[in-house]
């Protein structure tokens, strides 16, 4: 009973204004707002710039009016940015706090357009470095204070005695602590 048959509305707010309250009428699926499903709607509006918040709710009418909303993702066709608004709450007069509308602020890397590029670079760096964490590899850290190596073994053992020599022949990481 997490879906709703009530009329659902959304208002999208950006740096250049808002869309006003819009009913979400035509999903790409024959039945909309079903439990565990994702619906897609097209909302036509002037470009609002970077988005900051939305207000989403329903009219509270009809059978099965309560609704559990996980999140809303808005894809901006002008900038190709995705804006995610997490909710993970009930919009129901008989559940949670009884509200049937929620104001949600943008919650992910889309807050700053440059963060998506930064996230892409982070993923590329991880793709290049993740081999170090594969099963069987031993990580070693050089401690400048003790002038020895601290080794993290594949079997989850930590050799923190600060050996003066590199007993595994390779140093994957060298951090110094002063």
Automatic annotation (TrEMBL):
InterPro entries from the UniProt entry: Inner_ear_hair_cell_LOXHD, PLAT/LH2_dom, PLAT/LH2_dom_sf
Superkingdom as given in the UniProt entry: Eukaryota
Pfam families per the UniProt record, alphabetical: PLAT (PF01477)
Domain PLAT residue range list: 1-105
PROSITE patterns cross-referenced by the UniProt entry: PLAT
Protein name, per record: LOXH1 protein
């Amino acid at each position: 009973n997490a879906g709703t048959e009530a009329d659902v509305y959304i208002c999208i707010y950006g740096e250049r204004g808002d869309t006003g309250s819009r009913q979400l009428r035509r999903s790409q699926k024959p039945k909309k707002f079903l439990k565990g499903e994702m619906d897609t709607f097209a909302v036509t509006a002037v470009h609002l710039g970077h988005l900051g918040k939305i207000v989403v709710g329903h009219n509270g009418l009809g059978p099965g009016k309560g609704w559990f909303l996980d999140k809303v993702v808005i894809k901006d066709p002008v900038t190709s940015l995705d804006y995610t608004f997490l909710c993970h709450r009930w919009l129901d007069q008989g559940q949670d706090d009884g509200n049937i509308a929620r104001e949600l602020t943008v919650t992910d890397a889309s807050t700053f357009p440059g963060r998506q590029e930064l996230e892409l670079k982070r993923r590329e760096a991880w793709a290049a470095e993740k081999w170090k964490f594969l099963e069987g590899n031993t990580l070693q850290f050089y401690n400048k204070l003790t002038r020895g190596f601290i080794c993290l073994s594949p079997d989850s053992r930590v050799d923190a005695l600060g050996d003066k020599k590199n007993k595994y022949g390779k140093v994957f990481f060298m951090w110094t602590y002063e």
